[in-house]
Amino acid sequence: MQQHPGTQFARGHLRLASAPVRHGPGRRLGRHVRAWLTLLAAFLATLAAWFMAALALLPLLVRRAPVGRRLRQRPPREARIIPFQPRRRALPR
Amino acid sequence: MRIGIVTEEYWPSAGPVAEQVQQFAREARRLGHAVRVFTGAIPELRRGAPRRSRWRGSPSSRSELRPSLLEGDVIRLARSRRLLLPGGARRMAGGFGVGTALRNALAGERLDVVHVHAPLSPVLPLLALHHATGPVVGTFHHPYRPGFLGRLFDRRLQRYLDRLDAVVVTSRAGLASLPERVRGDLRVIPPGVDVERLARGCRIRRYQDGRLNVLFAGALEPGCGLDVLLPAVHRAWCHAEVRLLVVGDGPLRARYRAQVPRGMEEDVVFANPPAESRPDWFASADVCCVPGAAQDQVLEAMAAGRPVLAADVEPNRELVRHGREGELLPPGDAGVWARCLVRMAQEPIRGAAYGERGRAAAQRYGWPGMAREILNLYRAIGVRG
Question: Is the pTM here over 0.95, yes or no?
Fold first, then answer.
């Protein structure tokens, strides 16, 4: 059951969201077309992004190893997994 | 300590990585450390006049909140473009001379440590691993599963992985194949959450009409799970007074709007509010749904004191215990989600109990504590400052 039917008005400190836009049934086709156009634009943007990324990474093909080194050169060994152990503290009452 | 953070995702880009960088930078600065962020340049920022959609590169709903760093502390190196991948939308810088610019910027700042987010992903993270001369820490936000390009350059990527002085993963699920490939320790540090801000939300009056407000708050991109949640909410809507609030933006926004079932349009609200009012949307929700693997969404809902219905996948399982802070449901089964939503509408006391337990559990993931975990890790690998 709706307790506050109808349009709500802003009063003092109350923050109200904008009213949902009412769409007629004729706009459904438009929405689908828009969805496909957005995906097409995303695909083209993705292609452009990969091309520019390839340009940026080209120098790494020549210089094969990282320039810097680790602080501590450790012998190869199995990875040790350190789980997260949060500190417990009293909850605010 | 002078900390350099290299990331493709930073304000005004949205998402868990950008949020983590911002929040960590804020806490580190508060503790007296200097932080520089190296990221891509977003052309729309220079032009001013933010546009509405994040996909077009404008300030996003989540990150519209003032950036925690002064603009001088953010070094934008090359034009960044948004791209769509099967796992979601990402940002990537590119073009000639990015490597040189990054090398000079890193050298000029005389950093004590470089923290690279998503270290094996192009472009800035890989270039940072290549050019950094001091200690480097890498954070993997997603399980590392090399694709075609990853397998093609496997041996070369291994060299970059070996370069890392410390490796952080945000969940145990994120370990994936890393334990076989990393030499040294793997530290699990979950994403933090701004507990205080989310607890301050005020209910939006328009949505307090007795209906069950179901909130989805996340990026609208592949893998977000909204394609399961929409039919689930529709089924529940046939049996109970239910409204779906979709808070967020992304490349699939138009597609999801088109998928809203006939007759239900007025009860599905798509909103991309400014970050300041994001807590209000959580406060207005009766139940928060996380149909994909998204720890940040789970933590936000818990911090806001809302019951969580989350997909029963590994990252969510690490935060939500079934029947305690919420319920874990099979990720692709809309029928189970619908039945659970109807049950939540009929049993509000159960939801309130979940929410209270969630709020208590989320206190452990507050940013002050999480930032200290990361700073302690720096010290553990020998970073001075």
Answer: no
Q: Work out the minimum CA distance from B273 to partner chain A, whole angstroms.
A: 9
Say how far apart CA B162 and CA B141 lie, in whole Å. 18
Taking only the tens place, the pLDDT of each residue in B345-382 is 999 999 999 999 999 999 999 999 999 999 999 998 88
Q: What single string gives the DSSP state of each residue in B161-222?
A: HHH-SEEEESSGGGGTTHHHH-SSEEEE----B-HHHHHT----GGG-SSSEEEEEES--ST
Cis status, amide bond into B261, omega within 30 of 0: no
Altogether, the residues listed in chain B come to a count of 385
Q: Which domains does chain B have, with CATH numbers?
A: 2-192+366-380 (3.40.50.2000), 195-364 (3.40.50.2000)
| Residue range B6-35, pLDDT digits in tens | 999 988 877 889 889 999 999 999 999 999
Q: Please say whether the beta carbons of B214 and B287 come within 8 A.
A: yes
Which ranges of chain B have pLDDT less than 50? 49-65
Residue A74 in tokens? 């450790």
- Decide if A83 contacts B171 (C-beta within 8 A): no
B70 to chain A, minimum CA–CA distance in Å? 27
Counting Cβ atoms within 10 Å, is residue B149 exposed (0-12), middle (13-18) or buried (19+)? exposed
Q: Decide: B111 and B36 in contact? Cβ < 8 Å.
A: yes
* Confidence grade of residue A35 (pLDDT, cut at 50, 70, 90): confident
- Cβ–Cβ gap A70/B163 under 8 Å: yes
Separation CA B125–CA B117 (nearest Å): 7
Q: Between β-strands B34-41 and B2-6, what pairing exists: parallel, antiparallel or unpaired?
A: parallel
Could you tell me the CA-to-CA distances from B361 to B173, B191, B246, B301, B364 in Å, in that order?
A: 20, 14, 25, 11, 6
**CA–CA dist B35, B26 (Å, integer):** 9
**Angle separating helix axes B334-346 and B348-362, nearest 10 degrees:** 100
pLDDT for B47-66, tens place per residue? Answer: 654 444 444 333 344 444 45
Best mutation target among B255, B374, B379 (most A Cβ atoms within 10 Å) is B255
**C-beta separation of B58 from B52 below 8 A:** yes
